[in-house]
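Q: Sequence in, structure out?
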Amino acid sequence: MAELEEVNADAAHAFKAYNPKVFCRAFMNTSIKSDAITNNMAETFNGYIINARTKHLIYMMEDIRVALMQRLVNKRKEMEKQNSGLCPRIQSILDKEKAKASNCDVLPSTEHIFNVRYYLDQLIVDLDAKTCTCKKWDMMGIPCCHALACIFFLNHEAEAYVDECYKTEVYLKSYAGSIPPIEGERHWPRIEMKIDPPPIKVGPGRPRKSRIRDPFEDPKRSGTLSRHGMEMTCTLCKTKGHNKRGCPQKGVIQPSEPAPKKARGRPRKETKPALLHPTMVLNQHPYITQFQLNQHS
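A: Exactly. Output:
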């Protein structure tokens, strides 16, 4: 950011105006153990209830209740089968970092502070504070390869340094609750007071199923933004701000010829024409006499 402010102070001010704490990892709060900067959680749940959203309000809520009720039980059963103290996905991430730890050179400074050399980089690891210069351990709560090298240097277990939120016990506590079942509409209590449902107002057009897209998002390719806001470069005068169609020097500068396209496939070998015997020529062209063939030879 300091280098950006020296080059263009307005660009740095505009970047900070977009609240980088919600999308830039350098400004995020490290107490929240997550490096996700997208809204995938909301998009996933939206796809999870996409069929229920098309129904009436009561039946929509009933479908969502039944789906969540079953999901809580299934997730709890799957985690109870795990023998490891960590969640399976966290354990796989930790195993990948363990493979990289062999490339680190550990230099102890104190009992819990180390200097780690990783290829051409040099970092500081504090096991008590659970911090590393790369900030990966600070943000995710999973020890990076630099921290794992220090943990192995002390002959400690790597799983003991993983944040508590990734433990199997905490996962089971999160799914310990349950949604109670409900009787069907036939068994609901009846009352004497007549209650009419609110009037249903049907809007024009087909009900929306997909999410509201960004105004500059490409409708054909989901998740891809258009080239809006990008500064174009002219291929004639090499000046930014316009293209060759609106170039002021369009008739003055001759466009450079494009490079010839390479032929597809293997180049064909040149074959020399085969020499035919005079008798073969006479057989193919019966109107040619032997005298004309001798003169041509």
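Residues 88-166 form one domain.
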